[in-house]
Amino acid sequence: MADYQIINPYSGEPIEAYEFHTREQVAEAIEALVAARKTQQATPAFERSNILLKLAQLLLENKEDLAQLVMQETSKTINDSRVEIDRAYNTALASAMEARSINGEALDSDAYPPMREKIGVVLWKPLGTVLCITPFNFPINIALHKIGPAFAAGNTILFKPGPQNKRSAERLVALCYAAGMDRSVLKMLIPDIDATRYAVSHPEIQAINFTGGTAAANAIAADAGYKKMLFELGGNDPLIVMPDADLDAAVNATINQRFATAGQRCTAAKRLFVHTAVFDAFAEKLVAATARLKVGNPAEEDTFIGPLIHTAAADEVEARISAAVNAGAKVLFGHKREGNILWPTILDNVADDAELVAEETFGPVVPLRKFDDEAELIPLINNSPFGLQAGVFTQNLALAKRLYNQLDVGLLAVNDGPGFRAEHFPFGGVKESGVGREGVRYAIREMSYQKTLVI
Ligand SMILES: NC(=O)c1ccc[n+]([C@@H]2O[C@H](COP(=O)([O-])OP(=O)(O)OC[C@H]3O[C@@H](n4cnc5c(N)ncnc54)[C@H](O)[C@@H]3O)[C@@H](O)[C@H]2O)c1
Ligand SMILES: O=CCS(=O)(=O)O
């Protein structure tokens, strides 16, 4: 029997069965990637940039095929899948642009005594070989956020996608090769956990660029030893609606940033804090807009919400909703299931310590939480172990600045939701949401070191 079976989350049909790569194959690949550092050293920045530019073009040319692959293996709707490829194009393009401008700085030694009349020239150099580990939910764009900057910086790359994403990942790697990346500098393997742990702890891996959940991150951190780590982890991101908010815009952001991708997004609006003064009006508009969403087959053009990634994920989210309801939460919409599909669900009166809101819930459910003043809001949000992004709808810039200063997050979006992301902006969280920053220029630095020449 094969080690892994890719199942279509919507139809339940098997897509492909395969064997995981072994420890020996991991060792061989790393040895080859170490040798290939010479190839990268001989590839100047302008050439790396041109390859990434070509990759961006190829992503656009192959957009529909890639979107279909993502849709089949994740059951993200076809439109969400297309949006992901558009984003990946931007990520590749930004990687191409940044590859040409990895500039350092010059320092004057005589800023401090004694006088030595030296100049320090500081440049960024590649770390060597980077292990990139990605999750199931954005298999192309998250992979691009790792491969693009790692390649731009001049590293060789071992790419380990989520097991469900073998086919889209293979296609992405084929496009990287077609764009001109030497086969020796980028290798993709899907080993089992034991062989992945071997790669994580391997002394010739200089950095681990990981996106995924806390449990895997803890295991990687324990295995890695002295390696650079860029971790993009979970979130329990708040969207705040103030009394002066544009309620229609806030509803729109909630729909797009909580129900798209069936809520399986790190930066999804997972907790809604709505001021008492506008709570009823907001809830009414949100329920009405949610009732218009089409739920079902992700292949149909107008479907907005498809299934969760697998039955265990749907079971977990459904159980959290049921537990919250049994403890007194009121269902304003949804709470219905069919196969792996969970209907978009809106709840009121969820207890602050319910698992549904205290943990990261990866599904299409909006818990609405009333609040009366700012002072009450900050600890409610900061009490989470996560701190990824936040959004606030308000016309009050002074309030927005106070929230920016007080919330433990990596980004606060004003008049937008926590799901805001521009691929070239710094991206990452604080606390258990991660370490380091993605966003192409910042990721390049995470996967480089500063080397100084004194003359
Ligand atoms: N902050 C971000 O940028 C971001 C983006 C997307 C997803 N996520 C997070 O990812 C999670 C969902 O994705 P998932 O279910 O695929 O995550 P996951 O942690 O289960 O898996 C992520 C990857 O890690 C691998 N992995 C698992 N255990 C490992 C171990 N012990 N050692 C090495 N690798 C291991 C998996 O095979 C997979 O490739 C959520 O928590 C979500 O918030 C974060
Ligand atoms: O899962 C989150 C990745 S992103 O869409 O916020 O980049």
Poorly predicted spans: none
The total domain count is 2
| CATH architecture verdict of the largest domain | 3-Layer(aba) Sandwich
Number of E strands = 22
Protein name: Aldehyde dehydrogenase family protein
InterPro entries: Ald_DH/histidinol_DH (IPR016161), Ald_DH_C (IPR016163), Ald_DH_CS_CYS (IPR016160), Ald_DH_CS_GLU (IPR029510), Ald_DH_N (IPR016162), Aldehyde_DH_dom (IPR015590), ALDH-related_metabolic_enz (IPR051020)
Active site: 232
Keywords: Oxidoreductase
Report on this model:
It comes from Microbulbifer salipaludis. Keywords: Oxidoreductase. The chain has 455 residues and is an alpha/beta fold. It is 41% helix and 21% strand. The longest helix has 22 residues. The site of nicotinamide-adenine-dinucleotide has 27 residues, from helix 8 and helix 9. The site of the ligand O=CCS(=O)(=O)O has 6 residues, from loops.
Describe the structure in brief.
The protein is α/β, with parallel strands linked by helices. It is built from 16 helices and 22 strands. Helix content is 41%, strand content 21%.
